[in-house]
Specification:
- This protein has 267 residues and is α+β, with helices and mostly antiparallel strands.
- The chain has two domains: 92 residues, Ribosome hibernation promotion factor-like (Double Stranded RNA Binding Domain), CATH 3.30.160.100; 165 residues, no CATH class.
- 23% of the residues lie in helices and 41% in strands.
- It contains five helices and 15 strands.
- Helix 1 packs parallel to helix 2.
- The longest helix is centred in the first third of the chain and has 24 residues.
- The protein is elongated, with a radius of gyration of 20 Å.
């Protein structure tokens, strides 16, 4: 296991580093292969803040914690991380890592509609990997978690760094929410990152896909799940990617036979 600890506005002494490494080793028991743990310690006024990003078994886990002193922040964040990993592992063991759950009936045109929740995998993918998976499964869309290379304080990597690739009338597109908007919790769909896909080869062995950014995002609306269902049922479409104003995340609502499902990030 590779542990990297850095400080921002804070000098990481050998005592603090040793304490953090000792506490981090508590989470090794949850993994078959724990690849790396990235830790950032930061001080803002009276707050001692710790960010931690864990890469293990092909999944990324992220948490942030603040307290009055750095050792207390370390204790609290390791407890939080243990709970997060344990919940995920429990879902895995119950075959619920990618699951369907019944959501309450939603009133749609004065009729109760059963909506099923489809929680996507927490395993990070590159854009090309996601596109190839979508093609292999013969689907028109995919919602996926993007991997991150480093830690940026105050960004919720556990939930928010998702993107959607889908087929539009003009070809394949990808949309993701800029990190700046996640950080500020101010979401403007017109400023989301939208790319056209130039697919020169979709061969799994030698894929060649170029992502060409557009000036603005025109396809994604900021609406509620109920509104998205209304649009889907009345518009003659089979699926609708949208930004959910209630959960503040990218979702895809779609028809599957006679029922509706909504694809959401793995929280």
């Amino acid at each position: 296991m590779n542990i990297t600890i850095t400080g921002r506005n804070f000098e990481v002494t050998s005592d603090v580093r040793d304490y953090a490494e000792k506490r981090i080793k508590k989470i090794e028991k949850y993994f078959n292969q724990l690849i790396e743990v990235l830790v950032v310690m930061n001080v803002q006024k009276l707050d001692h803040i710790v960010d931690i990003l864990v890469n293990g078994d092909g999944v990324q886990f992220y948490a942030i914690q603040k307290a009055g002193d750095m050792c207390s922040s370390i204790d609290l964040i390791i407890d939080k991380m243990e709970k997060q990993i344990s919940r995920y592992k429990d879902r895995q063991s119950d075959h619920k890592a990618v699951s369907h759950e019944m959501v309450e009936k939603i009133d749609l045109e004065n009729q109760g509609v059963d909506l099923h929740l489809y929680q996507v995998s927490n395993k990070p993918k590159t854009e090309v990997e996601a596109f190839l998976e979508m093609k292999l499964e013969n689907r028109e869309f995919i919602l996926f978690k993007k991997g991150v290379a480093d830690i940026k304080t105050d960004l919720d990597y556990a939930n928010k760094n998702y993107a959607v690739i889908y087929r539009s009338k003009d070809g394949f597109k990808m949309v993701e929410v800029p990190f700046a908007q996640i950080q500020e919790a101010r979401f403007d769909p017109k400023s989301f990152i939208e790319c056209d896909l130039d697919v020169q080869s979709d061969s799994p062995a030698k894929p060649k896909v170029k992502f060409r950014p557009k000036d603005c995002c025109t396809d994604i609306e900021k609406i509620s799940l109920t509104d998205a269902l209304q649009k889907l049922s009345s518009g003659g479409r089979e699926f609708l990617p949208f930004f959910n104003i209630e959960t503040k995340s990218l979702n895809v609502v779609y028809k599957k036979g006679r029922r509706f499902e909504v694809m959401v990030p793995a929280f």
